[in-house]
Amino acid sequence: MIQFQGMISHRRAALAVVAKAANAVASSSSSSSSSSSSLPSLSSPTTTTAMTTRGTKAFNTSRCLSSSSCFKYDAPWLNYSYSGVDSTSTPSIMNFIDGNFENQTPPATAAAINDSTTIPIYNPATNQLLSCIPESSSSSSSNTNITTAATPAERAILSAKSAYPSWSQTPVQIRQRLLLEYAHLLHQKEGKTTADAMGDVWRGLEVVEAATRVGSEMLGDSLQNLSNGLDTISYRVPLGVCAGIAPFNFPAMIPLWMFPLAIATGNTYVLKPTEKAPSASLLLVKYLHELGLPPGVVNVINGGRNTVDTMLTHPDVKAISFVGSNTAGEYIHDVGSRHGKRVQANLGAKNHATVILADAEKVSTIKALVGAAFGAAGQRCMALSVVIFVGELEESKRWANELVEEAKKLKVGSGFEEGVDIGPLISKDATERAEKIIQQSIDDGATCMLDGRDITVKGYENGNWLGPTVINLSGEHYTNPQVPITNPAYVEEIFAPVLTILTVPTLDDAIQISNNNRYGNGTAIFTSSGGAARKYQYEIEAGQVGINVPIPVPLPFFSFTGNKSSIRGDVNFYGKSGVQFFTQLKTVTSNWQYAKGTDLGGVTMPVLGKK
Predict the structure, then answer these.
(1) What is the crossing angle of helices 253-264 and 195-211, to 10°?
(2) Which helix (H) or strand (E) holds 92?
(3) CA distances (Å), 557 to each of 216, 246, 353, in order?
(4) Which of these, 267, 240, 298, 253, lies nearest to 96 by C-alpha position?
(5) How far is CA 451 from CA 239, 447, 463, 479, in A?
(6) Which residues, listed in sequence order, are joined to residue 79 by a DSSP beta bridge?
(7) What phi, psi does 211 have (nearest 5°)?
């Protein structure tokens, strides 16, 4: 029986550490690499740093991480213990394996950080070097002895394997109770933070809360006396060691989509957070262990492709969860599946919203469109990328102009500054890629109604800035749904604050254009017509539909149900689908009616129901 330590008293870190980390990162693009010869940033480019509070004063980690006194208590995963740490050195971030932080990688200087054993982390608002993480695997070897495992990735997997027999036999009520305590603890530590970062934490917390009642979702089926004393019971059992690869744009929410439900259903877990924002995952797992989670049930390893390859090929890993780019996700799905693992992968998107100009409420709709398109700097897989106006061209122009004026009100700046609406893109590469696509779109004939390029932020001149950008592809003419749209701003998932506008005369045209899109994460319609909404709901192909809801991500009573090229694997995240992903069916048929010595043998095929 697991002994719990009870609720933890208020700590200075609060959820601001998680939420500010999420906010500083600002989400990033998974498809920022055009190279097909190597796996791109496995969870999309990622980066950010944690935030801590001392009393009521907040400290910016871009300053804090250069000091050996900051974070020592709030972030034990930061390594300052090596000698020689000076103003030119940055702390390294440790792995969490078998219940302990591993002190492996020394603090590094900017000159030495680019070797193959470490990966640098930069502040996207300044491009200042903040820290480094270890590459937890040098190869895709599969050592099966924990005492001789050569790499941290192998040790983490074998630690999870060792913890599995005991954890899987822990009563489901005990596992649920631990998750309930965990949910309470995260509530306690919410802290004061920006709304977008808080959304990252709270949407993840909702999945934790759903995991506290996982027992009802694991109920099996039974049938008594189905044939002459035979009883059959079918029930759900855990898989074993599961693993997750998380992206940078939601460094708290996505890990909380993964490991809480996995361990609630009796599995053990190895989590690889984004290379650019690992602190949120480490903090979340630290909190869980403070509540009494046994060592090895959840492990956190850092790294890049080599670490991922170990997870994909190690024989003890039974299932892989991934959120990120299409290129990386398809690689993970193909390699993992080829090595006999279950894989669920949420990939890219190009989400369309249709606005019925004749009856949509203008003020609220425009605010919803602006928020969905430019929130998180457009760096989220459910960001609104395309708006299709249905109606007269002149009315469409008026709507577009008002949308642009609303977008101009948004403030661009560091996520740690008050009143900021749009933070930096995750990396210079992501910024340059977005700017290139904008220019290609203009060269291809589009009208740039609002250009967010060349923006500067005082005090953060070296940051990765791109302001709200609005590109109109229709102009003076309707877009023809019969003609493929080839403009780069429409075709590419830009993962930046860039919104494309189209105008068509009818709802049928809008539906056809949306359905021609290869992605299928989400879509929305804005209208006061029940008939139009119902037609859209039934005829649109995207997996998640909002009716006057701009970002239709369901609460975790349901599952995240993207489709088409936005998903690989057959089972979705969280909800009932999540429970199905982390469990397998076992069926037991028993016969207790015969006395000892009764002949139950025979060489012929047994036939149920035959007397």
Answers:
(1) 10
(2) strand 92-93
(3) 12, 22, 25
(4) 298
(5) 50, 10, 17, 22
(6) 92
(7) -70, -20
Q: What pTM value is reported for the model? A: 0.83
**Which pLDDT does position 108 carry in this prediction?**
52
End-to-end CA separation in angstroms for the chain: 46
- Closest residue by Cα to residue 52 from 265, 307, 279: 279
Answer yes or no: 448 catalytic: no
Structure tokens at 164: 């599995």
Q: Which of 263, 265, 313, 305 is nearest to 284 (CA)?
A: 263
Q: What is the pLDDT of residue 87?
A: 45
DSSP class per residue in 93-142: E-EEETTEEE--SPPEETTTTTSTTEEEEE-TTT--EEEEEE---SS---
Domains of the chain by range and CATH? Answer: 16-138+171-346 (3.40.605.10), 351-563 (3.40.309.10)
Q: Quote the pLDDT of residue 53.
A: 29
Amino acid at 529: S
- Can you tell me which residue has the tokens 């599961």? 242
CA 45, CA 431: separation in Å to the nearest integer?
11
What's the CA gap between 198 and 15, in Å, rounded? 8
Beta bridge partners of 588: 233
Active-site option among 64, 132, 242, 381: 381
Closest-CA residue to 257 (of 315, 353, 323):
323
The CA distance from 150 to 141, in Å, is 9
Can you give the pLDDT at residue 146?
A: 54
| Three-class DSSP category at 132 | strand
pLDDT at 88: 52
Cα(394)–Cα(402) distance, rounded to whole angstroms? 13
- Burial class of residue 598 in the structure, from the number of CB atoms within 10 Å of its CB (0-12 exposed, 13-18 middle, 19+ buried): exposed
Per the document, the length of the chain is 611
- Environment class of 524 (CB within 10 Å of its CB; exposed 0-12, middle 13-18, buried 19+): buried
Report helix angle 253-264 to 279-290, nearest 10. 40
Give the integer Cα–Cα distance in Å for 258 and 248. 15
**φ, ψ for residue 109, nearest 5 deg:** -90, 160
Q: Side chain identity at 401, as an amino acid letter? A: N
Distance CA(13)–CA(21), nearest Å, equals: 12
The low-confidence residues of the chain, meaning pLDDT below 50, are 1-73, 81-87, 140-141, 191-193
* Beta bridge pairs of residue 298: 269
Query: With contact defined as beta carbons under 8 Å apart, do 521 and 544 qualify?
Result: yes
Residue whose tokens read 């049938």: 223
Q: Rounded CA gap, 55 and 250, in Å?
A: 26
Give just the sign of the alpha carbon dihedral 359, 363, 365, 369: positive
273, 38, 140, 569: CA torsion to nearest 10: 60
Burial pattern 441-469, b for ≥16 Cβ within 10 A else e, equals bbeeebebbbbbeeeebeebeebbbbbbb
Task: Tell me how crowded residue 234 is: count the other CB atoms within 10 A of its CB.
Answer: 13
Task: Catalogue the E-assigned strands of 18-69.
Answer: 52-54, 57-59
- Give buried/exposed letters for 498-512 (b at 16+ CB in 10 A, else e): bbbbbbbeebebbbe
